[in-house]
Amino acid sequence: MTTTETKIILNKDILRITKDSDVVPYRNRVKEYAVKIGMSLVNQTKLITGASELVRNMLKYGGGGEARIEVITQGRNTGIRLVFTDQGPGIPDIKRAMTDGFSTGKSMGLGLPGTKRLMNEFDIQSEPGVGTTVTVVKWKNG
Amino acid sequence: MKNEAVKIFQKKKSTILENWMNNQLQDDGLREDLMSNEDLRLQSEELLSSLVDSLTDANIESSGSGDFDTIRDILASISISRAKQGYSPRETGLFVIGLKDALLKTLGTEIKDPETLYKQSMMVNKVMDNFAMHTFETFIKGREEVILRQTDEIADISTPVIRVWDGILALPIIGTLDSSRTQIVMENLLQEIVDSGSSIAILDISGVPAVDSLVAQHLIKTVAATRLMGAECIISGIRPEIAQTVVHLGIDLSQIITKASLASALKTAFNIMQLEVNKKQKLKA
Questions:
Q1: N or C: which end of chain A has fewer CB within 10 A?
Q2: Which CATH number covers residue B260?
Q3: What is the pLDDT of residues B47-83, one digit of tens each?
Q4: Partner-chain contact B178 A46, CB within 8 Å
Q5: Which helix (H) or strand (E) holds A36?
Q6: For residue B48, what is the domain's CATH number?
Q7: A11: β partners
Q8: ipTM of model
């Protein structure tokens, strides 16, 4: 698989996340898409767990935002891309935030680094005072 | 000018009721399974009487007037009770709109002058639309009450504590484990440990769809609290995909006794309590 090949979006869905009760419906939606493209149970669980971590982060630290679910293809590979965008305070030190056990919120500090391990691709962009965008990709057979 | 509509309604009350009842009885959506025709007639009569009684020349033009409070109360109680009985919004809406039809029909036969008829009909329309709106609002409120009650019921039934053996408790968790659920689970479990004097608690998470770091943190806290009470806690129902995810996430559950199934957790519990389960020996003749 060459990474230079462009990713084509087949299907797109955008959900607003503003309260705790949005987490479960969002997760169910991600699961629906994962089942639709025929993702294996293990990958499904990894994707859903990662999505759950990121969406909770967005709620807790970013004050809620927008969560996008995309079905993408690249070459012969099909997968799910999730994009989380918030207009929260941003992360001043991404490197520290990506370290196991570091948390500013009394949690386990595994959300970001753990999710990176669960996904195939992980990208985080943050600017203090502007907001944070996290993009992850999980391939069907990744 | 004396208002024509008010006069006509007072005079023709029984005709209007008949018309309205006919409207309702002829409708396909009539729910005889939910309410008998006699009850429906009583309900309709009560509403119509209070409408005719409270309609005066002065207030027919201002539907927000306080004179209509009795009607609003009756409408509210009707639509809330209908929401609980399982009527659809359409059926409840037709109830009020059917009355409007009957009222307008009577006006049509009684008033001959087109201009007066138009003016009076508009007024009646306005008043009745206002009531219809009110009915919808309370109907939705009624439904919301049903949903809230169900939410409470689900929270109650979804966290049962089962005594599987003398001294062994099992707590199957189904659904997402969030902060409020954890609180309920922990309270129920700890209380039951005190009440039953149990020394082992099994938390079964077969029904939890995903274990993320928050859920894991809640589990670890529950186990820690159980241990503080002097009991041992076993987590069972860890599915293969959950195990892989937990490892990748980097959650450390090695301090906790975890098992794949409730059966093996029970076996471990028997071991801890030094109990033995044996096949019954056949008595020799």
A1: N
A2: 3.30.750.24
A3: 888 888 777 766 666 656 667 777 888 888 888 888 7
A4: no
A5: helix A23-36
A6: 1.10.490.130
A7: A71
A8: 0.81
